[in-house]
Amino acid sequence: MDALTLRIGEFEGPMDLLLHLIKEMKIDIYNIPMVELTHQYLSYIHSMQEMELEVASEYLLMAATLLEIKARMLLPKPKVEIDEVEVEEDPRDELVEKLMEYKQFQEGAKKLEELSFQRGMHYGKEASDLSTLQEIIPLQEGQVTTQDLWNALKKIARRNLDKMPLQANIQHETHTVEEMMDSILTKIQENPQKSIRFDKCFPSFHRHAIVTTFLAMLQLVREHKIRLVQHVPYEDIVLETFDKGGAFSE
């Protein structure tokens, strides 16, 4: 077979060169004719030496590997046992495995390069100025957010699950929002501190009672009859009346 015409320096390494030779010679990568492939590879190495170019050690190592495989192909092949069946070991198997792995990486790199080129054809939109669409209202000291209320409600729900027996007779309790509003105000007024902890406002841990009580709290805050305060971050939320002074949460 005539030697192929190759451009010096166009390959990234010996594996890249081997894949190019296999493609140009139109041979089956799973049935490599080692004599022809080794001849073409050595011709490339010699052409580099004739041009007085320094041959990288990795190219020389691959040349030695090809010569070794070529020599082993001429010797009787050792047999290995697979599923109690003896088969001849192919000296080319390791080379083929490495070539296929390198080919996969090569194709992946090419795909990433194509995606990078396509991305370069698009222009990104500059960030929009949304300052006119937002209104920043700083919370006063001790004031709570809706997230604080939601976390407190989830804490009540978890406590409900922990106290729920494995078997129980469920009795429906009916509470109106107005009744719970009066109940909350009464509990606050009866306390000398004119305040009550968030979790102490719930008469029971049934779902209906929890929801109704929570709606009653929100309505009292809306009517400016109580305020919700958290004196220390992450501690219990407290319901207070306005005669204690300070800001309120809506």
Automatic annotation (TrEMBL):
GO cellular component: cytoplasm
Subunit structure: Component of a cohesin-like complex composed of ScpA, ScpB and the Smc homodimer, in which ScpA and ScpB bind to the head domain of Smc. The presence of the three proteins is required for the association of the complex with DNA.
UniProt record similarity statement: Belongs to the ScpA family.
Full protein name: Segregation and condensation protein A
Classification via PANTHER family: SEGREGATION AND CONDENSATION PROTEIN A (PTHR33969:SF2)
Keyword list, A-Z: Cell cycle, Cell division, Chromosome partition, Cytoplasm
Gene designation: scpA
Presence of keyword Cytoplasm: yes
Pfam families attached to this UniProt entry: SMC_ScpA (PF02616)
Compartments where found: Cytoplasm
Domain of life: Bacteria
Function: Participates in chromosomal partition during cell division. May act via the formation of a condensin-like complex containing Smc and ScpB that pull DNA away from mid-cell into both cell halves.
Predominant location: cytoplasm
GO biological process assignments: cell division; chromosome segregation; DNA replication
